[in-house]
Amino acid sequence: MCATTTSLTSRTCGRAHVRRFAAEAARPGSKGSNTTKKEEDEEEWVDPPHIAEAKQRLRTFEKEDLYAVLGVAPDVDSEGIITAYNERGAALASAPDFSTNAELKAQLQRLKHATEVLLDPPQRLEFDAQRRSVHEALRRLEVDPKWARGKVRMVTVGRTFLFTKQVWAFGVFLAMMGVFTYIAIDFARRKEEQLKRHDRATVTRKGSPTQEQPHRRTPVTPPPAAAAATTTIPTPTEKDA
């Protein structure tokens, strides 16, 4: 219809199309509302199953806090614990429907358990340490969704960086081992050649007496003729004359 109208009517129809497109884009679930949907997804954070389970366990433990059961402060002494047990226990036992109300009986049992644990020093120290760790875990889990999502990404990047660092360190270790192995092999080869040269020199000295003892002269035995010539002639006696 707008194609057959004047230019003014065309401009009016164009504005109408723009307004209609903007209205459709503003509606949730429309194709033009991708940016709005993305922002809504960023604002909405759903805990992973393991984090949700951890939060539920921690909150359950927080509800069963022995100090909260007795209604006392964490730094209460033994007298304060006994006084709180007597007051709360008497209030529960004096209820009109105590004998028929299972919840009141369960509360009284929790009071007795809390009193027994907190009056025993070793058990109280153990419970205090566990309580501190639970509160610290709750404080860390109760974070901003965007911060939590960023922390999850940071953990993933950190694990990747740690793995890369370990691989790099292992590669450096292998390289150093190769260098030391080469040095050891080269040293052994040089030592072996030195021993071989020493053994050859020792054999040469043992096979040549003149070289082994050059300062001693070998005696020469004279021939028989020379021995006869040097024989002493006896002096003639008077009888021979």
Structural summary, described in words:
The chain is mainly alpha-helical. The protein is 74% helix and 0% strand. The N terminus is likely disordered. Among the domains are: 99 residues, Helix Hairpins, CATH 1.10.287.110; 43 residues.
Question: Which keywords apply here?
Answer:
single chain; 241 residues; mainly alpha; Helix Hairpins; 10 helices; 74% helix; elongated; disordered N terminus
Brief description of this entry?
With 241 residues, the protein is mainly α.
- Globular, elongated, flat, extended or rod-shaped: what is the shape? elongated
Strand content: under 5%
Assembly annotation = single chain
CATH architecture classification name of the domain at 49-147 = Orthogonal Bundle
Write down the secondary-structure element order: HHHHHHHHHH
Low-pLDDT residue intervals, each spanning 5 or more residues = 1-12, 29-35, 37-43, 144-158, 209-213
Mean pLDDT: 68
- Identify the CATH class of the domain at 49-147: Mainly Alpha
First and last CA, distance:
185 Å
Structural class: mainly alpha
Q: Could you please say which CATH topology of the domain at 49-147 applies here?
A: Helix Hairpins
Number-wise, the strands total 0
Count, helices: 10
- Can you give the helix content as a percent range? over 70%
